[in-house]
Design goal:
Helix content: under 10%
Shape: globular
Distance between the termini: 40 Å
Order of helices and strands: EEHEEEE
Radius of gyration: 15 Å
Length: 107
């Protein structure tokens, strides 16, 4: 497997700032991955229950994933990373597939 993309696995945490106020912070770490495709069957099954899988990342080692709920990915030619929410994971041997969708933030 050639993992030629870098993704950031992200989780939220709460910390206390220097003034004693609690604030939410993102904790992220970069891992190598390759892009996979969403299969037609998988897409339509998810769509039937209101989910819209958009992108799949494949990690060479399932141990690289620690139940992070978000993935940040910067597509080629783009300057800004897009945030995806993890829909499901699937382990196949040593590899781990992470299927994600993009959340729409209300304006």
């Amino acid at each position: 497997m050639v993992a030629n993309d870098v993704i950031a696995l992200v989780r939220n945490s709460t910390s206390i700032d220097e003034y004693g106020d609690m604030k939410n912070v993102d904790i992220s770490r970069n891992v190598f991955a390759r892009l996979g495709s969403i299969g037609q069957k998988e897409f339509y099954q998810a769509n039937a229950v209101g989910l819209k899988p958009e992108i799949k990342f494949i990690l060479a080692d399932y141990l690289d994933y620690d139940d992070e709920p978000f993935v940040d990915y910067t597509p080629p030619g783009k300057q800004k990373a897009q945030r995806y929410r993890v829909l499901r994971t699937f382990r196949s041997g040593q590899e781990l597939e992470i299927t994600c969708y993009r959340e729409v933030n209300p304006a």
